[in-house]
Design goal:
Quinone Oxidoreductase, Chain A, domain 1, 26% helix, 7-stranded mixed sheet, 2 domains, 6-stranded parallel sheet, alpha/beta, Rossmann fold
Length: 347
């Protein structure tokens, strides 16, 4: 079978490796579709994501669907041929974060496709892989394997919405309209937001944001010198900073209403930034972080399977695993791509 391995910056190799066998409580899955995330791009381009540095060959990929190919001993609730969404989180269940019900803050987290621990947690850019049965959520509806693979990014958005508190009837700003920005639009609408404005500096992702339900989109790089974002969208109750750009966080702090809430979702520069902290004080803002996702994965799978949210406008196409490097390069180009996915070669 084929598997992708990143050995360092710009060093991605597609190699032939043996098909693994499932152990007790595990299942063997054939890849359905695996989305290329920003962290996967960073591992390929830079050999690292922030402080997580590749120290051994790493198979990236943490947002995927699969088809059950073989059951290990003791597995119940799954059958060969089942299509499943894969939860990439493997919390310990024992630490303070887990005991508080905040598994995403687990002190001993094992997250697929990550160099955060050593040996690394290998990911899902592989034709076959073994997973604990508990991380596989079966999907019986007719939605595509590509849609099912969007359960992980939708989970990130649902968790961010939970961090913000009630959005029912609220005015919402989302800075950044990439995949997670568009998932934020879907999640905010699901939570009852009355008006959703989305900003970016590229036209294509803003077009997709409108397709998934944004009420208003703004090219912030085209604002006039004396024009504030609030002049166009008003003062929202809640802002989600998704782009990871320091200027976007500043825009959120300046634009949200007094007493409003700002949720930081995007990964900001590792070296830190200059924060206008007096805005937090003088405007009495709530500035909250949102990291990965908590107990919402099943909710995300259900929303996609029932098409209460429609992720299809975000899907930009699929490439075979054998063409992974070119697929990552395409995924980088936000003028033409949103979510690019990998599928088994020959599928």
């Amino acid at each position: 079978m084929l598997a992708c391995q990143v050995h360092g910056a710009m060093d991605l190799r597609v190699i032939d490796v043996p098909v693994p066998r499932p152990g007790t409580g595990e299942v063997l899955l054939r890849l359905g579709a695996a989305g290329i995330c920003g962290s996967d791009m960073h591992y390929y381009l830079h050999g690292r994501v922030g402080s997580f540095v590749i120290r051994e060959p790493l198979t990236p990929g943490h947002e995927a669907s699969g088809v059950v190919a073989e059951l290990g001993e003791g597995v119940s609730g799954l059958r060969v041929g089942d299509r499943v969404a894969i939860n990439p989180s493997r919390p310990c269940g024992r630490c303070a974060g887990c005991r508080e019900g905040r598994e995403n803050l687990c002190a001993n987290m094992r997250f697929l496709g990550s160099a955060s621990v050593f040996p690394h947690m290998q990911g899902l850019f592989s034709e076959y892989f073994v997973m604990p049965a508990g991380q596989c959520v079966p999907v019986a509806s007719a939605v595509s394997l590509g849609e099912i693979a969007m359960s992980e990014p939708l989970s990130v958005a649902l968790h961010s919405v939970h961090r913000a508190g009630s959005l029912l009837g609220r005015q919402v700003l989302i800075t950044g309209s990439g995949t997670i920005g568009c998932m934020m639009v879907l999640a905010a609408r699901l939570a009852g937001a009355a008006h959703i404005a989305v900003t970016d500096v590229v036209d294509h992702p803003l077009t997709v944001a409108r397709q998934v339900g944004a009420d208003q989109t703004v090219r912030t790089d085209q604002l006039l010198a004396d024009q504030a974002l609030s002049d166009l969208i008003g003062e929202p109750d809640v802002a989600f900073e998704v782009s990871g750009a320091p200027s976007a966080l500043s825009a959120c702090l300046n634009t949200v209403r007094r007493g409003g809430t700002v949720v930081q979702v995007g990964t900001l520069p590792a070296e830190g930034l200059h924060l206008h902290a007096n805005l937090v004080m003088s405007r009495e803002l709530d500035l909250r972080g949102s990291f990965r996702f908590g107990n919402v994965f099943g909710q995300a799978v259900s929303a996609i399977a029932s098409r209460r949210v429609d992720v299809r406008p975000v899907l930009s196409g699929a490439h075979p695993l054998s063409d992974a490097a070119r697929a990552i390069e395409q995924a980088r180009d936000k003028s033409i791509s949103m979510k690019v996915q990998l599928v088994p070669t020959g599928a």
